[in-house]
Structures are given as C-alpha cells and as structure tokens.
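Researcher: Good morning. I'm working through a list of sequences from a screen, and I'd like to move beyond sequence-only analysis. For each chain I'm collecting a predicted structure so we can compare shapes side by side. This is the next one on the list. No need for commentary yet; just the structure.
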Amino acid sequence: MERILYYEVAPVCYVNLMSVIPDIWQGFQREWLLEAIENSLERRRNSRIQAFRDDLFIRWIRFRGAYIWKEICQHYRH
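Model: Good morning. Structure tokens for this chain:
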C-alpha cells in the first residue's frame, strides 16, 4: 500500500496530499484517477529521464508527506 500511495497515487494527486486547505480535498473521479496514474507510469516506463525526474519528485513527496503514511499506519494497525 505504501508503494502504491507514493509511486502511483501521490505523483498524480500531490496537490491534494500536500494541501493544508481542506477545500482542496474534493476527491477524484475513478476513471480520471486510473487514467492519470497509468499515464504517469507509462511516461516513466518510456523515458529514463522522466523516470529519474519522477524518482526525485517521489522522494520529495515521501519526505514532505511522511506524516500521511504515519497517520495511516496508526489508524489501520491490527
């Protein structure tokens, strides 16, 4: 789940994940989200430069959003 969050969902939805303004959290249409994730993954598969850039971006998201995963783990540990 952590990998999916940071490597698939977060690069597409980072504006919402990093927002402190609740109004930004509006949700996403399923079809749009799935298509956006697939497009993002496809760009990484087709370009080493894009893969490198996205890797740096994902590292930044993981650093800035570490509290998100920590909170998820606190609520769903069983």
